[in-house]
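Inputs:
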Amino acid sequence: MNTELRLTVPVARVLAALVADPSGDHYGMELMQSSGLPSGTLYPILARLTEAGWLDKRWEDIDPSEAGRPARAYYRLTPAALPVARQRLAELHEQTRPAHPHVAAKEATA
Amino acid sequence: MIRRLCHALLSSAARRWPADLRAEMLAEWRAELHALPGGGRRLRYAASLAVSRPHREAAVVVRPGRNLAHAVLSLVLLAGLPMVYLELALGWTTGYSEDTVTWQAWVGAGSILAAAGLAIICARVTPGVTQLIRPVLLPLWCFGSPYATLAAWPLLSGHLPNRSHLASGALWALSAVALGTLAARARPALVSWGIVAAAVPVSFWFLSMSVEIIAAGYVGSGPLAEYLFTLAVRTPVHVAVFLLVYANHLARRPRASAPEVAAARA
C-alpha cells in the first residue's frame, strides 16, 4: 500500500466518508452524497485510492437481467488502510483545528 | 433524449481514461446512472464526468506499423517548418522604426503563441515518435534535426557553412537540449513548463552570447520592454518555442505499456 498519498481536501472528504462506516460497502452515488463531491471529482479519487492499495473494489453479485439493473461497484477501505486513514484524518483535523481562545489571546499579547 | 445524451457524455468521459480502466469505469458509471432519480441529476452526473480529468492520463497507443510513419513525419516537420519559417519571416524582422515597433511587437507575441499552438498540433499528429524515441531523448531529436538541416543547407547550394553561425547555432541547440531534457524529466507539470519557458531566453542568449537588444530607442518604458520586444520579434525565439513545446508535449504524454500496444496490434 502506498502511504505517501497526497491528502487534499476532496481526498480527505472521501476518506472521512469511508472511515465513518469502515465495514460497509460504499457505492458511487452514496459517496457523492456523503462527501459532497461531484462525480467528476469523486471517481478519479476512488481510482487513485484503489491503485494505491487503500481501497478494495468489488462488483455486486447479481444477475443484471433478473435484477433489472446493472451491477454496481462497491468500495471498502482495506484493513491496512483503515488505521492509516484514521491517523491521517486526525493529523489533518489537528492541523486545521482553530486555536483555543485562551491560547490565541496569549499569542496575541506575546 | 436525456438518456442518450447522458450515455454519450459517459462514453466521451471513458475515452479519456486509461485503456485498462475504460470499460470497467463505464460499466460502473452506467450502473450509477441507472440508479439515479430524475433527468437533471443524471445529466449533472454525466456532465461532471465528461468535463473532468482522470487520475492519470491515458497512454497514447499507436499501431506499431504507424510508428515509423510518425517518426518520418516528425522529421519532416522538425526539419522543414523552421527552415520555411525562417525564410518567410526574414522580411518583417529586419527593419524597425517608431511607426512599426507596435505592430511588430503584436505580431511577434502572436507568433510565439502560434508557434506553441502549432507545436501542440504537430505533437498530436505524431505521437508514434514516443514509441521509437525515449522521452528524455526527444529534445535532442527535436533540435538535432533542424540543426543538421541548417548546417547542411549551404552545402546543397554549393557553399561552405559559416563557421561562426554553426558554432552559435550549436550553443543554441545544446543549451535548449539540456534544458529541454531537464523539463522532460521534471514533475509536476508547472515546473516542467516553467523550465521550458526559461529555456527560450537562455538558448537565445547562447545564440548571441549577449543580452541582445534591437530597436533600442524606439521601444519606450525602459530596458526590460526593449528586451521583451527583442525576444518577441526574433525568429530564432519563435523556432525555439516551437521545438521546445513540441518536445515537452510529447515527452510528457504517457507511453503505452506492452499490453496496450499488443491490444492495439490485435
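The beta strands of chain A are 55-59, 73-77. Flag for discussion at group meeting.
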